[in-house]
Amino acid sequence: MANASGGPAPSDALVLFGVTGDLAHKMIFPALYAMVKRGVLRVPVVGVARSPMTLAQLQQRATDGIRKAGRIDDPRALRQLLSLLRYVGGDYNDPGTFSALRQALGTARRPAHYLAIPPSLFSTVITGLGAAGLADHARVIVEKPFGRDLASARTLNLVARSVFPEDAIFRIDHFLGKEAIMNILYFRFANSFLEPIWNRNHVASVQMTLSEDFGVNGRGAFYETAGCLCDVIQNHLFQIVALLAMEPPAYRGFGAVHSEQAAVFQAMRPLKSADVVRGQYAGYRKEPDVARNSDVETFCAVRLYIDSWRWAGVPWYLRSGKRLPETAAEVLVQLKPPPQRLFADSAPADGRANYLRFRLSPTSAVALAARVKRAGKEFVGDQRELYLLDQQPGEEAPYERLLTDAMAGDGALFTREDAVEAAWAVVDGVLKRHRRVHPYRRGSWGPRAADALIAADGGWHDPSA
C-alpha cells in the first residue's frame, strides 16, 4: 500500500468502531475537529456501534463532545467534519453489519479501522473485517490494553496478524503521543553531554510517578478487569522506561527505535511479588460495578531491574495511583554523589545528590539539580535547579497526532508486536501470584509499604516540590 512517491498511501476513510462510547465523545471527536481545522482530515468518517442512532443524532453527539472539550472557534471546520460523518448500526457478530459498512465506505479502498471498543471485542471485529474483505489495503488501529496478560496478548497478535500485515497494525497508546514524552527521546539523543553519564557508573536510580487526584470516575467495571499494574505501569510507564533506557538507534528511523525499545523490554528482569506493592484507596469497593471484596489495585509501585550492560544493578522505581494528592507525571534520574567528599555538604543530609528531572504533566519541563556555593568564605552551598519550562503553544493533542500518523501510515509512535509481548512477560508472573492490596487513605501518596520499597534510594520525590 504505497503512493506514487514510494511512501505509504494515506487512508481514504476512517472507520470508528465504538463511535457512541465515552472515548469517542471525549477524545476522538475533538481530535477529528482539530484535524479538520489543520486540513489533514478530508475523508469520510464512518461510525459503527450497536446502538440505534440516526446520522443527525451522531452529528449532535460529535458537536457536544467537541464543545465540552473546548471552545468551537471554527464553525466552518465543524460543519465540514459533520458533513464527513456516516453511521452504521449493528451487532459486531453479525456479518450484515460489515456488509453495511462496506456499502457506507462507497469508493474508499484504503480505510483505517479504529477499534475504540472493549478489548473483549477486538478479535471479533478484526475477524469480521477479514471475512468481509475489508482488511485488504486497510489499516487497523487498536486501543490499549492490547491483551490482559502474556497469553491473551499473543492470541490477539495472532488474530491481528492473520488478517493484517504487521505494518498495517497500529497499537495505540495515547501516552506516546504526548509532546513531553516525545521530548524524552529527543533530549536523550540530541544532547551530547548526557551520554557519558547515562549509565550504571553515574546513575544511582531512576524513579517515575504518574499520579491522579481522582478515582475511577464511574469506570469501576473496567478497572475490575485491569487494575493499575496493567492500566498504567505495564504500558504507559514501561514506554517511558524504554525511551530512557534504550541504546542509541543505528539509524534515524522508527524501525530502529522500535528495535531498541523492544530490547529494553527483553532485558527487564521479570517482576517478583517482593518487587510489587499494590494498594487500594479507601472507598473503592463502594464504587459502582466494583466487587464488595475486590482485591484490584488502584495504586501500584514496582522495583524494576534492566539486565543490560548499561543498566545492570540500577533500580528503576515506578509508581502510579488514583486518589493521590495531585495529578502529575514526573521522572527523576538520581545521579551518584561525587566520588570524594571534598566539601562537608557535598553529600546532602536528605541523601538527594544531583539529579535530572523530567516534568511531563501538568506542565512540561526539564530540570537539572546542581549545588551552588553560598556567598562568603565558607565552602557550603545549596542545591538548586536549572529549570527549563518547555510548554509550547499550538501543541497537537495526543489523539490528534496519533490518528493523523496512523492514517498516513507512520508507525513511529506505535508499539510493535515483539515489544508488546516482551512487556507482558515482565509482569505476567505477578499478575497470577501477588500479595493482597494494602488500603490507603484518599489524598495520601499510597500505602507505607511503597515507601519501604524505595527507602534505600532516598525515598520518593514529591512531584509538587
| Total number of strands | 15
Q: Kindly report the average pLDDT value.
A: 90
Fourth-tier CATH superfamily name of the largest domain: Dihydrodipicolinate Reductase, domain 2
Distance N terminus to C terminus? Answer: 50 Å
Question: What percent of residues adopt helix (DSSP H or I)?
Answer: 25-40%
Order of helices and strands: EHEHHEHEHEHEHEHHEEEEEEEHHEH
Number of domains: 2
Contiguous runs where pLDDT drops below 50 for at least 5 residues: none
CATH class of the largest domain: Alpha Beta
Q: Sheet with the most strands? A: 9 strands, mixed
State the secondary-structure class: alpha/beta
Describe the structure.
There is one protein chain. β13 (365-373) and β14 form a beta hairpin. The longest helix is centred in the middle third of the chain and has 26 residues, at 220-245. α5 runs parallel beside α6 (150-163) and α6 (150-163) runs antiparallel to α11 (417-432). The protein has 12 helices and 15 strands. The mean pLDDT is 90. The protein folds into 2 domains: 13-143, Rossmann fold, CATH 3.40.50.720; 176-457, Dihydrodipicolinate Reductase, domain 2 (2-Layer Sandwich), CATH 3.30.360. It is an alpha/beta fold and 465 residues long. The N and C termini lie far apart (50 Å). Helices cover 35% and strands 20% of the residues. The strands form 2 sheets. Strands 14-13-12-11-7-10-9-8-15 form a 9-stranded mixed beta sheet, sandwiched between helices. 41% of the residues are buried.
